[in-house]
Amino acid sequence: MLTVDMENKENGSLDVKNSLENGRPLDPADWAVTDVVNYFRTAGFEEQASAFQEQEIDGKSLLLMTRNDVLTGLSLKLGPALKIYEYHVKPLQTQHLKNNSL
User: Where is the SAM domain (predicted)?
Assistant: First the structure.
């Protein structure tokens, strides 16, 4: 089993290396709901991770989320919602697009 090398940064974002963690697929589009939930728990958003479970957000859904979806659709507090979108959802979307545009 491969591991993820995650480094907490001062802004609450994580530097995620390209590998697997707990069997979670490398491409977020292949993540199940539990993979998404575990990703956000690992990233330090334990309380907010349950919103992804309740809304049944899998990897494909996560990659389709807009800023507005995260800020209002998940009923999260504004501060954590902004960090989740800017430092996690958006970078995952960008990386997915880069990896799949070859």
Answer: 31-79
Question: What is the spatial distance between Cα 24 and Cα 55, in angstroms, rounded to a whole number?
Answer: 19
| Total-model pTM | 0.78
Tens of pLDDT along the chain (102 residues)? Answer: 333 444 455 555 555 544 565 578 899 999 999 999 999 999 999 999 999 999 999 999 999 999 999 999 999 999 999 999 999 999 999 999 999 886
Burial class for 95, CB neighbours closer than 10 Å (0-12, 13-18, 19+): middle
**Whole-number Å distance between alpha carbons of 78 and 3:** 31
Pair 21, 37: CB distance under 8 Å: no
| Tokens linked to 35 | 């993979």
